[in-house]
Amino acid sequence: MLTLVTYLNKMEVGLSKFIVIEGLIGVGKTSLCRLLKEKRKARLILEPAEDNPFLVHFYSQQDRFAFPTQMFYLATRSEQQYRLQQMQLFSDLCVADYIFEKDQLFAEHTLTGDELELYFQFSTLLARQIAVPKFILFLDAPTHVIQERISNRAIQAEQEIRDEYLDELRSRYYTLWKNYDKAPVYVMDTTLIDYINNPDHAEYILDIIDGWLNDTPDPRAPEAYQGETDMQIPLFNMI
Fold it and tell me: Distance between CA 107 and CA 66 in Å, rounded?
């Protein structure tokens, strides 16, 4: 029987078949997660963006809707993290399109004063049950590329997103990665990678991920991010 102490200890170690694909809005993280589901039979833990009833108002009226938007995400992400522990009993591979610490990253960007303090009280309690991934793959691209992708996928709530918002979030992500020591973080520029429509690109990125999962890194794979710079690393060789 899994005792409470054993369960809590399990929360503190990385899960060998749990990985995270992270990135800014529209960069292609969820598409990669779905590719892993199709090609590697992964179970998905997807960010509940489309279910958030406050999100459509948030981008145009941030001051008014930041707190309910953030608390919705905190509650649903926490529930998903709990369910993830159960999935580990039945699935060889689980893939999430967000890291739990991302929630705080967004909260610090959108909340202030008493609202931020209240958020921290809840997040501190809920963070006790989060899972640690084997590694994180952070997908990046220049802001104008991301804006083109946001425009092309035509989600109404996202059309109000400004360049400054994306730039600020990118900076906060890289600050997070500099100080993140729970698992390796790999950074990939997706500007020229089309793993949805190009089978060669899909095979390439799957090989990279397989290597990290099996502790046999593909020689074409990037090294773990060391925090030398906030700038995006160049697209590595796809040969």
Answer: 8
0.85 exceeded by pTM: no
C-alpha span between 94 and 227 (Å, rounded): 27
Inter-residue contact 166 to 25 (CB < 8 Å): yes
Amino acid symbol at 62: Q
Q: How many CB atoms lie within 10 A of CB 57?
A: 15
Neighbours of 187 (CB within 10 A): 21
> pLDDT by residue (tens digit) across 117-169?
888 888 887 776 678 899 999 999 999 999 999 888 877 767 778 899 899 98
Q: Where are the domains of the chain?
A: 16-213
Q: CA-to-CA distance for 117 and 49, rounded, in angstroms?
A: 23
**8 Å CB contact between 198 and 164:** no
Q: Which residues pair with 138 in a beta bridge?
A: 22, 187
- Spatial neighbors of 17 by CB under 8 A, at least 6 apart, are 88, 91, 92, 93, 94, 134, 213
The CATH fold assigned to 16-213 is Rossmann fold (3.40.50)
